[in-house]
Design goal:
UDP-n-acetylglucosamine1-carboxyvinyl-transferase, Chain; binds phosphoenolpyruvate; 433 residues; 23 strands; 4-stranded mixed beta sheet
């Protein structure tokens, strides 16, 4: 087990250059397998999920050259082969599911392990994915530990309407549609910034996509796919996270941010805790007047509310970070996770710091913030952003705290501890058997 030890109570200050967004990088890595032409990806982050995907590419015989220091990845899937009896896709990460369409397109068969659930946020359905594969002509067979998916011939273009705007199902639809002859249209498509970034990569490969950033995406596929060079965008999760680190510790962190147009709702959410986010000259920083305080709504008898749902709502992966601010800010806030049914169970860990939180139902949590907090040893579930939120609370409290099982952070944030140290944090990884 990897634990984070932090000696908190120090205001964090300084500049951060954010890394790429794991949830853009991973579908893009999966998509590279569609083409046998050489590719150069710039800004590849050194995170465990990336390493797992690159490892399976090597096992499949692809050429992989990566230099994390310069952030350059060269990929060439020329002599790549796949055998479902021999090759297992990476487990404990959601993105493996997006290797299925390229495997189908190139080898007519894919095998998906059962554990592609990723963070333990509650139900992570695979049925919407299976429906997409079937609509494109795939046959899906269930075995005790995996699914075997086969396409008897070429995938067939089709139209589909999702039950809900699922991020990875939208990406899987685009991946299937890229290989299917003709135009396929997806309605109720997800439109998160990482979905848009992924679609821009697909366009670079030669796929024609319309409706980027909307809930109806049209994909013209079946043509030859090329190679090329692609530079990853900055990760809005990491930008918001480091801004919040500054705010919760009473410091001020400046983060490079080339896409402030993605931030209006994120900024308004910070403002609910008395934190102003300022975007200028390609950078963002926070400003606050004294300790954090929940801003009361004008409507009488309701709580200040933070609602997370598919984009353009507040991204659900940012909710734990704002819950940390809610614990610290004087006043009461209701946090509403409209997506996951099991993403709030960790709230009992917050009480170990002396925080008062109330889990009304699996989707709704109320923080009664601003109480005196003391350092503690807390245990993170396998949820990246929760390990970070627990760290944030700990960093705001004077004394030694421990976040046990904080390893999921390494799935998404390269140099997390190094970045924190550059801001003045006293923090270390400690390994435990
Ligand atoms: C690799 C990757 O990109 N992972 C992200 C992706 O996961 P992922 O694509 O798995 O998330 P989905 O959008 O499919 O949603 C996850 C689950 O939430 C439930 N659900 C979702 C939306 C909805 O309107 N109704 C509903 O019930 C379903 O049970 C679904 O299985 O999107 C999630 C939601 O932004 C993020 O937390 C994950 O970080
Ligand atoms: C939940 C996340 O990732 P995954 O879907 O891969 O578990 C996340 O990035 O916060």
């Amino acid at each position: 087990m990897s634990n984070l030890i932090v000696h908190g109570g120090r205001p964090l200050r300084g500049d951060i250059i954010p890394s790429a967004n794991k949830n853009a990088v991973l579908p893009i890595l999966c998509a590279t397998l569609l083409t046998d032409q050489p590719l150069r990806l710039i800004g590849i982050p050194e995170i465990t999920d990336v390493k797992k995907i690159l490892e399976i590419f090597r096992v499949l015989g692809s050429e992989v050259t990566v230099d994390y220091a310069s952030g350059v990845l060269e990929l060439h899937h020329r002599d790549t082969h796949f055998d479902p009896k021999l090759h297992h896709l990476p487990e404990e990460m959601r993105s493996s599911i997006m290797l299925v369409p390229p495997l189908l397109a190139r080898f007519g068969v894919a095998r998906l392990e059962n554990d592609v659930k990723g963070c333990t946020l509650g139900v992570r359905e695979i049925d919407p994915h299976v429906e997409v594969f079937q609509r494109f002509g795939a046959q899906v067979e269930s075995s005790p530990d995996s699914l075997i998916i086969r396409t008897p011939g070429r995938m067939q273009a089709n139209d589909h309407w999702l039950d809900y705007a699922s991020v990875t199902t939208t990406e899987n639809f685009v991946l299937c549609a890229a290989s299917a002859e003709g135009t396929s249209v997806l309605t109720n498509a997800a439109s998160e910034p990482h979905v848009q970034e992924f679609c821009r990569f697909m366009a670079m490969l030669g796929v024609q996509i319309e409706g980027l950033g909307t809930s109806r995406v049209s994909v013209r596929g079946g043509g030859p796919l090329g190679g090329g060079e692609f530079r990853f965008d900055e990760d809005f999760h990491e930008i918001a996270t480091f801004l919040a680190m500054g705010a919760i510790t009473g410091g001020q962190v400046r983060v490079r941010n080339s896409a402030p147009q993605q931030f209006p709702l994120i900024d308004r959410t910070f403002a609910k805790f008395g934190v102003e986010v300022v975007h200028e000259n390609g950078w963002s920083h926070t400003r606050q007047n004294g300790p954090l305080k929940v801003v009361k709504p004008f409507t009488s008898n309701i709580l200040t509310k933070v609602e997370a749902a598919p984009w353009p709502y507040l991204p659900v992966d940012l909710l734990p970070i704002f819950i940390a601010l809610g614990v610290k800010a004087e006043g009461n806030t209701m946090f509403w996770n409209k997506i996951y049914d099991g993403a709030m169970g960790w709230s009992s860990e917050l009480s170990k710091f002396g925080a008062h939180v109330f889990l009304g139902d699996p989707h709704r949590l109320i923080t009664f913030g601003g109480l005196p907090l003391s350092p503690a040893s807390v245990e993170s579930p396998y949820i990246i952003r929760v390990a970070i939120a627990l760290f944030m609370v700990a960093a705001s409290i004077e004394g030694r705290s421990e976040i046990r099982n904080a390893l999921p952070i390494r799935r998404a944030h390269p140099k997390f501890v190094e970045n924190l140290r550059s801001l003045g944090a006293v923090v270390d990884w400690v390994e435990e058997d």
